[in-house]
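The data layer described in this paper is built around a simple, fixed record for each protein. We quote a single record here, exactly as it is kept in our systems:
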Amino acid sequence: MTIKNDTIKYLALTSEYFSQVITLANFVHGDGYLDDDKIIEWTNKGIINNINCSFVALLDDQVVGFRSTYSANQWQIDQWCSPHLWQVDSQKCCYFKCNTVDEKYRGLGIGRQLLQLAINAAQQQGAQAGISHLWKQSPNNSAVSYFSKCGGKLIKSHPDKWNEESKQGYSCILCGHNCHCEAAEMIIHFDN
């Protein structure tokens, strides 16, 4: 199957696509990763002044990828964050929560395009950088590799980042309900 990138449509993530996004997220990341309440919370954290930082990639009206992004000041800096190393005001950092592309459609630039759309929207909201925690155990460490190619810089590694979520219902596709996967805290500084 040959797919041209110009057949992929990119739209803001809205409730119309929630069901498909949840299905894709749980298939790729593991059962319990995303549910109805979380998708509403995640999406609302990315909207300021009617500017939405979260997007879907569609092929024939089917979600083949999505990017969930929290707006600056709409997310909690926690023990997994190192703002003293970011070299930018933490109040000016959005959070790239999740990027997911269906395995059948990887390598087409969908993840990169979703990230660029999120960056553009976050900049319109006033963000100067974006933080993310990338899954180091992704196949061939592809998550960190992709984010690095998009300008991401490694800040710090965090073992057991998703362990607590795994004990509360999330079943990691590698570790089950006792996740010990490592997160790479990374930042992209935007060109303003």
